[in-house]
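[Structure tokenization] protein backbone as discrete codes
[Encoding] learned vocabulary of local backbone shapes
[Protein] chain in single-letter code, fold in tokens
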Amino acid sequence: MAAAGLALAFKRSLGPQLSGVVFYAPYVAYALGAAISLWFRRARTFLLVALLFVAYVGYEAGMAMGPSSFPARVVLVSIMIFLPLNFLLAIALPERAVLHHRSYRWLFLVAAQVLVTRWVASAGRSLFSGTAWEGLLEHWLLTGTPPPLAMIFIAAAFIAAVAKSLPRGAPLEVGAAGAILAFFAACLGAGDPAQFQIFMAAAGLILLMAVLQESHGMAFRDELTGLPSRRTLEERLRTLGGVYTVAMVDVDHFKKFNDTYGHDVGDQVLRLVAARLMEVGGGGRAFRYGGEEFAVVFPDRRVKQVLPELEALREGIQSYRVALRGKDRPEDAESGRDRRGKKGRGASGVSVTVSIGAAERSDWFPTADEVVRGADEALYRAKKRGRNRVVSR
């Protein structure tokens, strides 16, 4: 948004020589946004970009008929009402429901909106359109830039996008909120083609950046646990200095646990272990290595320095009991607490343990790959010695 404001001021100071660049900037933003959204299968973002494209084409078509003409006013009002309304619908739907199944409904909806706009814009000039529409546009709900009715839909779409982004700050929902703000700024200057073009381009670029950020998160962060992924670990290992320790953490008997209690409980266990790993002391940073295995990197730390932290981590995980939902367990949280109080604490849960192996960079393990291999060997020894223990190399 700030860059769009600077671009607008820069464009005005230079005059008409940049008008061609400004005119085509939204098309470039929409083309890139649509292509990358399809590449990463982000259906909702693709739809939002497509809606911006249709609105921008409609704006240019309306301005070509004269900025103060009745058709141009109809097009502007339609864009300011239909676009945030479509955004609101797209945000409210699940990701896959946007273009996954029966997606032609979106095509029909947008096509119907375009036809209605064209029909109203032809008032007084067509056998099928009367002149009543000209008076309707004078209603207070439809006057102004943007009109009050459009403001309602813009605010609703923005609130919906922000509300959907709150649980985890999802980039795509945050990007949708930013795109709505950029569209609102474009509407405020709808009479100035330069302002409308620049902020509509900004809306497309915001969605493009949101897709890129989301794809980066998919590549470098584990969705189940929220920990950085193995790819992030490999990049971190390449930046470490001459002294560091790597610990490998593995959930004991995880396959048996999964087979006994189900994958949902298994996922709960992985999230539990990840949550404890996030709190590890000694300057350690945890990563999801793969499956039920995690890695913790301690920059500028020797093995002896981090062993107390790893032991505290192991004990913390062992002392926590994972609650299991039995067939007779009530859905109501208060009833569940009452029942647990009668049966005794921990009666409906099981404990989880981890084995930990640690190794530091040394003459025996001079490279990051060898340090990880040394930590793996220590982990193997911990399991051979009975699991639920910390072993170092």
